[in-house]
């Protein structure tokens, strides 16, 4: 059963498409992101969890070579999307203790590596659940109102792009722990219903332009029927399936300028993530841009960029 895999930078296409429909002069004030490690820019750094990456060789291709807590060699999709939208080259992690009020204006990411829609996933990993991310979002809006006024908060809510990225960890790590309650189909339906509930809660808080990318099976009836048929949710809610593009990259890496597609750059690349990918491992590659994957789970920055550019051009050619 094909899955929508979490190559989330491509939700950028949804933003561009919406901008085209509304006019090219549309200004998106901020990017607000919820989700997991693909979009986490450092929210796990100060959590009591093993699932963090604020140490070398993570970040070796990030500006300055700093390990910021991004699960990649460089920037991650939240950064790339923010840059494409003309907001900033990087998107700050909300849990960064050094954030200043003005740092909040262009948006933040609440994403926490290892989380999912299933509350048990975050509990197992000792990370921030997507539901707790909503609580932090309420706090964020309160800060915007306090420092910049009600009108600015209203502008961010109504015109920013909200990106929700989750559920791959549920499928990868939590499904077996829930097997006594669900079979594969009912668990997928549970995740789909959870995604719908999350979107509705985010909508209640004022968000109107929401992109959702999920590892729930493509065509999941409850998810598609409930969200796309929900007349109460005024705004734009978009799902993007990039499975075919990713599969093509893995099958034909040289076509996209890559040399290695069957293992990650970090360590030996087969089972290396978080603390298993560290500076003491002598096998980390010297040229991460030749690899589609940075570690055994996360793509390299160049892979993210190639996917964004490839699908964005393909989509826009159908719009103009």
TrEMBL record:
Compartments, record wording: Secreted
GO biological process: lipid catabolic process
Record keyword DNA repair present: no
Organism superkingdom: Eukaryota
Primary location class: secreted
Keyword Signal attributed: yes
GO terms, molecular function: lipase activity
Entry coiled-coil feature ranges: none
Signal peptide region: 1-19
Keywords: Glycoprotein, Hydrolase, Lipid degradation, Lipid metabolism, Secreted, Signal
InterPro entries: GDSL, GDSL_lipolytic_enzyme, Lipase_GDSL_AS, SGNH_plant_lipase-like
Gene Ontology annotations for the cellular component aspect, listed alphabetically: extracellular region
One Pfam match: Lipase_GDSL
Recorded family membership: Belongs to the 'GDSL' lipolytic enzyme family.
Name this protein carries in UniProt: GDSL lipase/esterase
